[in-house]
Amino acid sequence: MGACRAGWRRYSDGPGRAQARNRIPATFSTEASGVVVLSEADVRDGVIPPGEGSERLDRALARLWPDLSRSRLQALIRDGQVTLEGAAAGDPSAKVVGGQRVAVTVPPPRPAEPEPEARDLAVVHEDDDLIVIDKPAGLVVHPGAGNDRGTLVNALLAHCGASLSGIGGVARPGIVHRLDKDTTGLMVVAKTDLAHQDLSAQFADHGRTGPLERAYLALVWGLPAPATGTIDAALARSERNREKIVVVREGRGRHAITHYRLEAALGTQEPVGLVRCRLETGRTHQIRVHLAHRGHPLLGDAVYGAAFRTKANRLGAEARAALDALGRQALHAALLGFRHPRTGESLRFESPPPADMARLIAALTP
């Protein structure tokens, strides 16, 4: 397991275990970026495990090698990378029975389409399967329209290099959750197919039955009442402004639940709450929209708190200057916990608010 860098806190428990593979050396390079990525073909031999009668080839292989997703195995079968009793198997739905010998060749991952771009990353933890980073404000997570360069994915491609074993056969980081561009804090990213599958399942469960734990710190206008509660309100994209998310009637949008707790009452003339939020679902802009719906938009949120902008004039001079310097919504992903996909170890990380948000909190503290 990798180490946790100073400045963050990590808690873990549970044993580790190793997995051996047979490999054939291979090399490729991405000439456009000047980055050379060394990789290896992964050759695996095995015997179809016994079962009740026959079953699909792709399903049997997924039981034999659970670190490869079923969709990845289907692609390998169609590409002629799987042999059954020495003969090429081209049909994922072909029936097999226990005791048949099978071989799979997993080619080295192809270079990702986004170009690697070196930049400083606050790496909290890293090992062969995943990386945990503390995302700064202003960093877009994934390339998209208008953001094909300078994203977290571009930076991770440069940082991880040859340690990316491939997500779906492509040498790319596996994004299993996202933070808004101007939201700071902890994110975990998969480096292998196994980690991508397992972490995706944990995030889809949202901690209802599994170990996933996420908590955010937010500064909001006013003091929520009651001080501890749950916001259960469906969300959907606004029909008037497709960049915004709005609360809608249940059945018209996606189910969304946010649990909150007032951590501290701040401010003097104008009350401000330091709120801790825990997500039971993970919708776009969920915390920002839910708290605004309750009448407590986040400080600095130009999208969902524009009507509260004049309240800043009632803050003290120091707090007003700190809010202007923040220049974004006051939201930080402060806690992230999950089960390690390979070892089963419980990992838990905490991150303090970034310096600009910490200055605002200090200025608001009576």
UniProtKB/TrEMBL annotation:
Responsible for synthesis of pseudouridine from uracil. This is Pseudouridine synthase. It comes from Methylobacterium currus. The keyword Aminoacyl-tRNA synthetase does not apply. Gene3D superfamilies: Pseudouridine synthase (3.30.2350.10), RNA-binding S4 domain (3.10.290.10). Pfam families: PseudoU_synth_2 (PF00849), S4 (PF01479). PANTHER family: MITOCHONDRIAL RNA PSEUDOURIDINE SYNTHASE, RIBOSOMAL LARGE SUBUNIT PSEUDOURIDINE SYNTHASE D. The keyword Ribosomal protein does not apply.
